[in-house]
Each structure stands twice: as structure tokens, then as C-alpha cells.
Amino acid sequence: MNDRIVVGAALYDDEGRLLAARRSAPPELAGGWELPGGKVEPGERCEDALVRELREELGVEAVPLERVPGQWPLPKGYALRVWKARLVSGEPEPLEDHDALRWLTPDEVWSVDWLAADVPAVSAALAVP
Ligand code: DCM
Q1: 32 Cα–ligand 1 center, Å
Q2: Model's pTM, two decimal places?
Q3: What is the DSSP letter of 108?
Q4: Which atom of ligand 1 is nearest to the CA of 76?
Q5: Which atom of ligand 1 is nearest to the CA of 75?
Q6: DSSP E strands: which ranges in the chain?
Q7: Among candidate residues 69, 63, 83, 75, the one with its CA nearest the CA of residue 28
Q8: CA atoms within 13 Å, Cβ hemisphere of 65
Q9: 67 alpha carbon – ligand 1 mean position (Å)
Q10: Which atom from ligand 1 is nearest to the alpha carbon of 97?
């Protein structure tokens, strides 16, 4: 069902900036920037996984909005699905798996070194009004 799905959030703040998170692990991904998120657990809904991951990784409460059309391949047979999401409360902190966070204005979106799978995912997220 939702086997081997990784969910990511195109998380925006009130000023319309997009959150990017820099991975600290594993070594082959460290230093690359991603949309925060993670693996969907067995029996879990994708949107629930997204809320859980943003809580665990960033310490924030967020609401998933619309799904960004598309799905992007990841290593080991996983696939990345993305939702636009709105920050409800909390200030994101890199609590797990990340060593830096940045809120990117529209002009800055391509100024970070996104992980390969996140490049088309970010493009698709920007295309959703
Ligand atoms: N991943 C990615 N882009 C994201 C989220 C995850 O490329 N926005 C990749 C990194 C790992 C895999 O998905 O290879 C699993 O992520 P995690 O370790 O966060 O569960």
C-alpha cells in the first residue's frame, strides 16, 4: 500500500518562504538539502507520517495541504511524495538527521544544493499555486 514511500513537506512560513533542511547523515547524503520528512510506517497514512516526521525532526506542528502531483524515485526502491504544508506552531529546529535549516525566499530556492530526488520535487512544488 504505502510500502516504501518517503513523504516530504514543502513547508511554508507566513511570508511564503520554503523550508530546506541539510542532512547530517548518512555520509553519502550529508551536506545535501532536502524537503523535511521521512519514511511512512506500515499501516500509516502518508499525511499522518508527514505530521509525525515534522514533529520528530523539527519539533513543529504542521498541517498537510494539497499533494504535489508526481512521485520521485529514491534509492532502495523508495519513492518520494510531497505535500505542501503550513506551519501551525513552533520554530523549526534541526533535532534529528539535520545540521542546518534555512527558510528560502522564492529568489533563494535554487541557492542550496538539493539532493537529487528533491530537485524535481521542489520544481513541482513551486508549480503548485
Ligand atoms: N530522502 C530524499 N529526500 C527527501 C527525504 C528523504 O532524498 N526529501 C531520501 C534519503 C534517504 C531516504 O529518502 O535515502 C530515507 O530518508 P530518511 O532516512 O529521512 O528516512
Answers
A1: 11
A2: 0.95
A3: G
A4: 14
A5: 14
A6: 5-12, 18-23, 33-34, 37-39, 61-73, 79-89, 98-104
A7: 75
A8: 12
A9: 18
A10: 19
Q: 120 by DSSP, 3-state: which?
A: helix
Residues in the chain, overall count: 129
Tell me what ipTM this predicted complex has. Answer: 0.91
Ligand 1 pocket by Cβ (under 6 Å): 6, 8, 29, 34-35, 37-39, 74-75, 78, 80, 97, 115, 117-118
- C-alpha distance across the termini of the chain, in Å: 28
List, for residues 70-112, the tens digit of each pLDDT value.
Answer: 999 999 999 999 999 999 999 999 999 999 999 999 999 999 9
Q: Provide the pLDDT confidence category of residue 2 given band limits of 50, 70 and 90.
A: confident
